[in-house]
Design a protein that fits this description.
This protein is α/β, with parallel strands linked by helices. About 25% of the residues lie in helices and about 20% in strands. The chain contains two helices and five strands.
């Protein structure tokens, strides 16, 4: 539905909110706050690394499909082996 204001039309826009979390407790708090989705990563101080399988499963069970996962084999900026 659009609304005419003068010669302009204004359409309502839904802003989606995604937050980055590094624990189940943070994911639960984000869900309670009403975010649309979360991105899960661990060790955010180093740019984030891939979370463990167990953490991903726990958050997926809690939030369902509203969870994404970052994939980084080592901290950002670290030298390759």
């Amino acid at each position: 539905m659009s609304v005419a204001i003068g010669a302009c039309y204004v359409w309502p826009v839904k802003v989606l909110v995604e937050v980055c979390v590094s624990s189940l407790a943070e994911a639960q708090a984000a869900a309670r706050a009403g975010v649309d989705s979360v991105e899960l990563c661990t060790w955010p101080d180093c740019g984030g690394v891939t979370p463990s399988y167990g953490l991903v499963n726990a958050v997926k069970e809690e939030l369902g499909s509203r969870c994404g996962c970052s994939s980084a084999p080592r901290p950002v900026g670290s030298p390759t082996p």
